[in-house]
Design brief:
By secondary structure, this protein is of the alpha/beta class. Helix content is 28%, strand content 24%. It is built from 15 helices and 20 strands. A hairpin with a 2-residue loop joins β1 and β2. The radius of gyration is 23 Å and the shape is globular. The two termini are 37 Å apart.
């Protein structure tokens, strides 16, 4: 259905616009109006250009041809003026994975910093990032407006903290947050800036099912309050009821503009997991790959893991489930040899007690790992093939020469997932979905004994999700590795997964029966 023209003047207008990405001009001849009372979802497959168009709308990437004009205040604002004129109380605010990566790298120069005691207390707290000075980027020497404004901000701040459930996190440093907790913080900061136009790139990515339901309600409330919403979505079932229009894109072109007829039941946002799982307490007979006994991790007075017992045996494949902040990321850090608190706990990996003289690189060489946060620590210029080859050395970059055989194995591994054509492209020039697939190839290339997949399908459309889960099932059939699969979408769990460990507030909740 084509979109009917509105009689009201637009808030935002693209006129014969094209967006620049590197040396390429994408979305040529774009004509798109956003009117007051309209709320849009940009939908399309991975690699279709959704995130790029959202960034252009927010003034983050250049419009190289035609015009993009914002009519959000007195007088029209050309896109290139957005950064200069709205740096504080932004009329336009973007929340995206790129913003999340920027926040992570600003306060954690290396991945293990979040687990390192000497690093963990550096950088701002969640409370500090929610102050008026931080949210509005106020100069410390600037004279603030009248007190009524400050009082109004503090009231909004309390409401937003309550909406996003951030009270338990206020004393935590930003680098100590999980992926989902960081996303909540960015969304909260965006709300506090009171934008006229809020652009959300994959807003539900990394959030647990319970909070996804809450976020639907929050976005509906914002829409009713006069904030214009534009979001990207790889899964149409995630689109909230407040969205009135769909912009369909494919191959960096707009293919349709139409009214939304999607209606999501937020009380049942996903299908139940198919297949029979056994409880975490079930005893296996294979050799133990992971053994944890009464594992406890704390930072100051905050307990992250509380007496966790877990054994993973050869031939077993597990789902690790739980809401944001349950302790999943911390538990994985113990398996990946990144968390020094492993030495203070009873943990055996591959039959060897942690702290018995083993090198962390000996452990990493036997573990493959995929996680969205990995992308924050790669340089924009690094090629996809180099990223894959770094999997032979368990490093974040390629710092050693590889053999001809390893290079050929890396190219073949990329081709297996249909990525042979991107081997020499920079990783960060690919879509989020393609980046995730490259990371999966990196994790598999060295034939690990333990494969840890932390939200591997986050941000992927249905086609790419099936591609990933099929690859995981193939690994399981070949008997190449034990698999630990982390997700907030239980319907995407590969069929090879037969065991579940559920965490809540750092404690194990053994699943028995149909998952809720």
């Amino acid at each position: 259905m084509s979109r009917q023209q509105s009689s009201t003047p637009p808030l935002v207008s693209f006129r014969q616009a094209a967006v620049r990405s590197g040396e390429r001009l994408l979305f040529p001849g774009t004509h798109w109006d956003i009117h007051l009372g309209e709320h849009w979802a940009i939908v399309g497959p991975n690699g279709s250009g959704k995130s790029l168009l959202a960034a252009a709308l927010a003034g983050r990437v250049p419009v190289a041809q035609g015009t993009l004009t914002h009519h959000l205040a007195e007088g029209a604002i050309d896109a290139h003026e957005l950064g200069a004129r709205y740096s504080r109380r932004s009329q336009v605010v973007l929340v995206s994975h790129a913003e999340e990566r920027a926040l992570a790298t600003q306060y954690a120069g290396f991945h293990q910093a979040r687990w390192n005691a000497s690093e963990a207390e550096r950088g701002p707290s969640v409370d500090g990032l929610l102050t008026r000075h931080s949210v509005e980027a106020i100069n410390p020497f600037e004279v603030l407006p009248e007190a009524e404004d400050t009082t109004a901000f503090e009231q909004r701040r309390r409401e937003v903290i309550d909406l996003f459930g951030l009270s338990p996190l206020l004393d935590r440093r930003v680098k100590q947050l999980s992926h989902g907790e960081t996303r909540k913080l960015l969304l909260a900061r965006a709300m506090l800036r009171g934008p006229r136009l809020l652009v959300l790139d994959d807003p539900f990515g990394g959030l647990d099912v319970g909070f996804c339901q809450e976020l639907h309600l929050i976005l509906d409330r914002l829409a009713r309050g006069g904030t214009t919403l534009v979001m990207t979505a790889a899964r149409e079932e995630e689109i909230p009821a407040s969205i009135t229009h769909l912009l369909r894109v494919d191959n960096s072109r707009i293919t349709a503009q139409e009214r939304s007829t999607i209606r999501v039941d937020v009380g049942n946002p996903q299908r139940r997991m198919a297949g029979a799982l056994v409880s975490a307490a079930s005893a296996g007979a294979g050799e133990a790959i992971v053994e944890m006994r009464a594992v406890t991790v704390r930072y100051g007075e905050t307990i992250i893991l509380d007496h966790v017992d877990w054994t993973v045996r050869k031939g077993e494949h597990w789902a690790l489930l739980g809401p944001n902040g349950a302790g999943k990321s911390t538990l994985l850090s113990l398996l990946l040899a990144d968390n020094p608190q492993a030495y203070a706990n009873d943990i055996r990996l591959f039959g060897r007690q942690r702290g018995s003289g083993e090198s962390i690189w000996e452990i990493k060489a036997r573990v493959g790992w995929v996680a969205p946060e990995l992308l924050a620590h790669y340089q924009p210029s690094w090629r996809c093939l180099d990223i894959v080859l770094s999997g032979f050395h368990a490093s974040m970059g390629l710092f050693r020469d590889c053999t001809i055989e390893e290079i050929e194995r890396g190219r073949q591994a990329l081709s297996t997932l249909g990525l042979g054509g991107v081997a020499d492209q920079p990783l960060l020039e690919l879509s989020e979905g393609a980046q995730r697939l490259v990371l999966l190839v990196r994790a598999l290339v060295a034939n690990p004994e333990l494969l840890v997949l932390d939200e591997p399908c986050q941000g992927l459309d249905a086609v790419h999700t099936r591609q990933v889960t099929s690859a995981v099932d193939r690994v399981a059939r070949e008997g190449r590795a034990c698999i630990i699969y982390v997700t907030h979408h239980e319907e995407e769990i590969p069929s090879c997964i037969t065991r579940v460990l559920r965490l809540k507030a750092g404690r194990v909740f053994v699943w028995e029966g149909e998952p809720g």
